[in-house]
Amino acid sequence: MRKNTRRKPSRTLRSRRARALLARLQNGRCAICGDQLGDDWHADHIEPWSVTGRTNVHEMQALCARCNAKKGTTSS
Q: Phi/psi zone of residue 20: left (φ > 0), alpha (ψ -120 to 50 degrees), beta?
């Protein structure tokens, strides 16, 4: 019997380049409050991953940790 070797889609932006691009697209600012992003910013799905199953820069937004915690799993 063959083992299933297919990987599950990633829920996060793992590439440093992709994360840097996401932050740059937003001029280094949180998409919700507009504050400057710190070192602990979060790459957040605009539509929940549980709905789309996709993770790419164009479907995500950079949020400060505080706004991401407030947002939870809602759409923005």
A: alpha
